[in-house]
Amino acid sequence: MATPANLTHPDRADLNLPSVLFALSDPDRLEIARQLRAGPLDMAECALSNPDMPKSTKSHLMKVLREAGVIRNEANGRSRRLTLRTDDLEARFPGLLAAVLDAPSPD
Amino acid sequence: MATPANLTHPDRADLNLPSVLFALSDPDRLEIARQLRAGPLDMAECALSNPDMPKSTKSHLMKVLREAGVIRNEANGRSRRLTLRTDDLEARFPGLLAAVLDAPSPD
DNA sequence: GCCACAGTTCGACTTTAGTTGAACCATCTA
DNA sequence: TAGATGGTTCAACTAAAGTCGAACTGTGGC
Question: Fewer Cβ close by (within 10 Å): the C or N end of chain B?
């Protein structure tokens, strides 16, 4: 199996619209994407609605975003560097990311 | 219960981003939204990937789109008139609908 | 080396979403 | 007003997604 240190990421050409929309259709995952808009963050810096969320659950959220191609998740010392795949998403789905992240939510 | 003839639709102000993204994250539902882009259609005119889909399943797809506020579903004689809520979506989530419907999909 | 740390993965479980036949409800037509 | 038509709703089931403790892995500090 893939070692935890080397996670797989879909190629830009393989980004799939339904998967991206699904990944962003969860309030927690959407919030993560919004936080990453200003630049990469280490995983521990990513604040969620529920600060007591178990790390396995948080890791799962990241997995869904990563497998959809919304974020990159790379080893960074003992931590994890999370990066929004802005360029890839813009190239494949022009205007989509901005429209989603700029949209009012929850209200 | 609400009679089949009078379905409820969320107000523009109540449109919720995660619900809209979720509704559009299914290939069949996305396809329906795309078909409605050119203008309203009667339900029977809406062609799906699987032409043998049971009507209860098709009705369910419409329900998800309607409850998310993506489409209107109104009585039209013995049929149903489906309308994309373009203006409401644009007002609440500017650029989102166009970005989604213009995006390449499945490839 | 050993240990603490930050995160991933696994496995079992709960929850939510999708699927479908059957019953039902309006509407149109004869 | 009876029957056919086009759809919704219900109920029961299947499938998929979320949750989270426990075990595991790579890294850094001592």
Answer: N
By Cβ distance, the residue of B22, B98, B102 closest to A25 is B22
Query: pLDDT tens digits for B69-82?
Result: 999 999 999 999 99
- The answer as to whether B85 is a domain residue is yes
Judge whether B106 lies within some domain: no
Question: What's chain A's length in residues?
Answer: 107
Does residue A105 lie within any of the structural domains?
A: no
Count: domains in chain B? 1
Which among A27, A94, A96 has CB closest to B18? A27
User: Where on the phi/psi map is residue A23: left (φ > 0), alpha (ψ -120 to 50), or beta?
Assistant: alpha
Chain B within 8 Å of A96 (Cβ-Cβ)?
Answer: yes
Residue B34: HSE in the Cβ half-sphere, 13 Å Cα cutoff? 19
The sign of the CA dihedral B30, B32, B38, B39 is negative
Q: What CATH number does residue A86 fall under? A: 1.10.10.10
User: For A36-63, how does the pLDDT look when each residue is reduced to its tens digit (9 = 90+)?
Assistant: 999 999 999 998 888 899 999 999 999 9
> Which domain covers residue B19, as residue numbers?
12-100
Query: To the nearest whole number, what is the mean pLDDT of chain A?
Result: 94
pLDDT of A106 strictly over 90:
no
